[in-house]
Design a protein that fits this description.
Distance between the termini: 67 Å
Number of strands: 51
Radius of gyration: 32 Å
Strand content: over 45%
Helix content: under 10%
Structural class: mainly beta
Shape: elongated
Length: 859
Amino acid sequence: MNRIISIILLFSTICVSSINAQGRVTVEDMMEQVKSIYPVSFVYDSSIKLNIPYSGKKPNMVSLENSLETIFSNTGIKWEIDGDYVILKRLSSYTLSGYIYQENGETVINATVWDITSNTGTLTNEHGFYSLTLNEGKHKIRFSHISCGEQTEDITLKGNKSQNIYLKADYRINEVVVTADLNSPIYTTQTGKVSLTAKDFVSGNNFMSSPDVVKKLQSLSGVASGTELISGLYVHGGGNDENLFLLDGTPLYQVNHAGGLFSAFNTDIVKNIDFYKSGFPARYGGRLSSVVDVRTNDGNMKEYHGSFTLGLLEGRIQFEGPIVKDRTSFNVAMRRTWIDLLTAPSLAIMNTSRRDKINTRYAFHDINAKVTHIFSEKSRADISLYSGNDLLKVNNKAYSYFSELSNIDKFNLQWGNFTASVNWKYIFSHKLFANFTGVYTHNRSKFDYLSEERLGYIEGLDGAIIKIQNNHSTINDFGYRMEFDYRPNTWNHIRFGSNYMRHIFMPQNFYSKYDNAANNELTDRIKSQYKSNEFTIYAEDDISLGSRLKLNGGIHYTMFGIAGTKYHSVEPRAAMNIKLCDNASFKVSYTKMSQFMHQLSATYLNLPTDYWVPSTEKITPMRSRQYSAGIYSRLPYNIRLSIEGFYKTMNNLIEYNGDNQLNPSADDWEENVRTGKGKAYGAEADISYSNGKTSVDASYTLSWSKRFFPDFHQSWYPDKFDNRHKFSINLSHKFSDRIDAYASWNFHSGNRMTIPTQKIEAPVIPPVTENQDPNEGMMVYEAPNNISLPAYHRLDLGINFRKTTKRGFERIWNISLYNAYCRMNPLYATVTQKEDGSFVGKAYGVFPIIPSFSYTLKF
């Protein structure tokens, strides 16, 4: 016992002396301490570095073996005792790799792989693949995901090893508490990244009881929603057309149904969503403001499962299972509205008592289908299809006093997407993963109108006045994506690849015909088409420099070619994470983005009649630069807090003058656009708490969004959706396994509009129209968007009642209240002049409290 005490005192004296002399303790110092106690000599190759900091625990020196094990743990050096000699050798490094699955065979994105032995780890990529290089020997590896729990494996590495892991998933629980989540903002390098999984849409306060991806994103800090109930997305002061939506790697142009009441993503098949509002990695490009990367489920490899939902306005069905067990799976999800089935009988009954007949039909559908096949542990492939379509038909008939058909009005509007992708994923080595994708996207908007006014009943006239208008707009994209994921060691994660897309834009194929009773026929035809090529290469490296510093640096290059010109864009990306302590980090990022396509809209609403056009010789690409920084922390009592600021500039923005027409001409659109720039800046704060049963998420945004278009105004003016303050709070509580309730309150400063400030006398320029007052004055507008509408706020409530049947099926009854206290938020406004000559705007609300319900059966 006395000897042990003497050894400890000697160790302490030597340790303090070493620290005082050199300011740190090295492995070499620890070896000298061993030699002072035990009669041994160390033998090693001179290339092995021993003058490295020692950060391990103090060895107890009770035995030589125990001391050596403590000193050389996590140093990459192995030892063996040969008589009076301790022989040191450099440990070999081997790679552990594979896929992480849910128990049903579904891959898990953003799962954490953590080596407890060496305190190093990694994340699975968007395909569920992981690769972790470790020293040879025994390791305790923890595999975990926030929605799937965790499990720990004891693994001995004597060479490169492939090991697939299956985690148990249960989406009915509110949250799985895991001990480490490398996808947390504290550990990731990028700023502005939010990851959502299927459990984030299992809430009871959705509009019409239908979970919606875009509306979920609208509730996040830094995101403005635009007009109420419209699926607009205005991120960090950007426009609604500046968001890149990817569905299994394939771009979508039209993401709205029913004018924005619903988005095009069916949450029954969504597996993971990575949303970026700043700090964009180099692998993304083509838009200025945000990236929404949606990945869908592959399908159950072991059993057949599905769900059926019947809601107030829509129905959904999803079915998945194995084609060949553990080898091939399928997953199909369909969604369709009931609106036309409800309105058709009502109109039929109404038309029986009316002389004039009104027939209107609206419907939309989404179909997702995916087939996945595993060739081997290294090779797998899938085919993913999506079809979405909206249909609005009007067929009205008017009759004269003598019940003769006198008027026919037919209106047909259709819009939607079709996408297809073929993916082949291959593991070239334990460190190199690749994904090769062939993609095709078809976007369409079809508008047909027929008006026929028959004249046979008027004093013997014969004939009709016929007006016909047809307008079709399409985009066809096809190309490839090549993605490589290389992890040479634990501190480097390299991604590189190439994309190519052939764009064929037909913004307008217009035909009109006017034929009067005298057979005088007038026709007009407009057809515009643009073909372009977009080629991209990129490379990025997520690198760890010690335990406190992580960097992500990358470059994104794009060549965009169109008849008459080529554009080259070199876009650097950089992000840095400084770990302040175990529970807090500071991050900063810089990104440059370019956008080579523009959406022409005559209104601020996102309508299917809007056109997409490419950059041309006259219209240059839009550019943006964004700087962001923030502090991210994990506080006691399961509280997470983050504060982030951003500053963003935008150049070559365009505003389209469509003469307030819903279907304006795209023949000379280059002459009808004005060019300007924008800037946005602000700060965001997010705080969350969860204890397993109760969860609270709150966010606050303070931001400014401004525009400068010299043709409109000679100085900066606020954007229409410059909402100074935005606050939201979401609360969920699980009362039992059968009942859970949700509440959400949202507030933001009002949208802006333009009103005149005065009216001055001015001569009217001839010719004067019939109803025009020749003494009418001129309205003076001092600045665009010069007033703010009333503030917007709304409370949503919802509750789920769950029951498990004897056969193991789950039944869910949902009741939701949208706008629970019936706040009539402004949807539009009018301007009137008061008696004193001043002007005032008056806002009008449309949407009151809206109750809804749904029934879901999971089998």
